[in-house]
UniProtKB/TrEMBL annotation:
Biased composition annotated in UniProt, kind: Pro residues: 1-12
GO molecular function: methyltransferase activity
Keywords: Methyltransferase, S-adenosyl-L-methionine, Transferase
Region (Disordered): 1-48, 287-311
Entry protein name: Methyltransferase domain-containing protein
Claim: Methyltransferase is one of the keywords in the record: yes
The species this protein was found in: Streptomyces nitrosporeus
């Protein structure tokens, strides 16, 4: 299924707060949240989020704009990281709209007009029901073993007709296109395989991007819309900057998994070589809507009788 979901009904009043949604902030040095390979307390985190913003924000925000996100709407972003998407949403829904940005470690999110920042774990902490016109999660659910349960919670958090956008990579295949030698190419692809293995060991699914559309449909979302993107990793690009961050952040675990210090040095030099180029996995930007009251799950119009079959 492709195409864009239709725009939601007019935005209503701001969402009501749910007692207990905000939880105590975790201080620097606290362990990374369960399931996450990367951590906002990392010394590399600021560079990581800067690369994410430059590489992905234009894609994420363009898809939201095309779906009809507009002034006056009330939005939620889970796993907001450094807050660049939340800030972009706040600009899209001004005047009159609101954005709630949540993260288990939200200390990197700067304040902005119309923006509320909460420390929140989407797996364990409550969300208000039928409260939001738009919910966004980018590169979050692939890290969570409970991703399917979280999708059900996000469905309930949306108002009827409200929009969910999930952006996730399918990192199952990230080919090296150019390298000085075949040995260099093999070393790079060994690194991408090891990175995916580390994510699986933490409970994540690096290939979940390819399954997002089906997961939304199976949860009860309708009007599924899909935009796939592939980015070039070459010296000077933010997509390669992300990969260099991954190498730096994961270095201790890569050494534990069998890489040598010399191999990690070779990888750094390789990714900065003017003759290097690779691709990301496919980024799946997937949208779906909570069914409106006049439709059954699957989008079949209500006619007074239960449908015998839905798409």
């Amino acid at each position: 299924m492709t195409g864009h979901p239709s725009a939601p009904p007019g935005a209503a009043a701001p969402p009501r707060a749910v007692p207990g949604t905000a939880v105590p902030r975790r201080g620097p040095g606290a362990p990374a949240p369960r399931g996450y390979v990367f951590d906002n307390d990392s010394p590399h985190s600021a560079h990581h989020h800067d690369c994410l913003e430059r590489a992905l924000d234009p894609l994420t925000l363009d898809h939201l704009t095309a779906a009809g996100v507009a002034p006056g709407m009330h939005c939620l972003e889970i796993g907001a990281g450094a807050g660049s998407v939340a800030h972009g949403l706040a600009r899209l829904v001004a005047p009159g709209g609101t954005v709630t940005a949540t993260d288990v470690k939200p200390g990197l999110i700067a304040p902005a007009p119309g923006l509320t920042v909460l420390t929140h774990d989407v797996v364990t902490d409550p969300l208000p029901e039928a409260a939001y016109d738009v919910v966004v999660a980018r590169l979050v659910l692939q890290h969570l073993p409970e991703r399917q349960e979280v999708l059900h919670r996000l469905l309930r958090a949306l108002r009827p007709g409200g929009l969910l956008q999930i952006d996730e990579f399918d990192a199952g295949r990230e080919p090296c296109l150019l390298a000085p030698t075949e040995d260099d190419a093999r070393l790079y692809e060994r690194f991408t395989t090891a990175r995916a293995d580390l994510m699986r060991a933490a409970g994540g699914d690096p290939s979940w991007g390819r399954r997002v559309a089906k997961a939304l449909r199976d949860t009860g979302f309708t009007g599924i819309g899909i935009r796939p993107h592939v980015l070039l990793r070459a010296p000077g690009t933010p997509a390669l900057g992300l990969q260099l961050h991954h190498l730096a952040h994961l270095a201790p675990r890569l050494l534990d998994s069998g890489f040598t210090p010399d191999e990690l040095d070779r990888l750094r030099a390789l990714m900065n070589h003017p003759g290097f180029a690779a691709l990301t996995g496919v980024l799946h930007s997937v949208q779906g809507r909570r069914p409106a009251p006049d439709t059954w799950p699957g989008g079949t119009p209500r006619t007074g009788t239960t449908p015998t079959e839905t798409p």
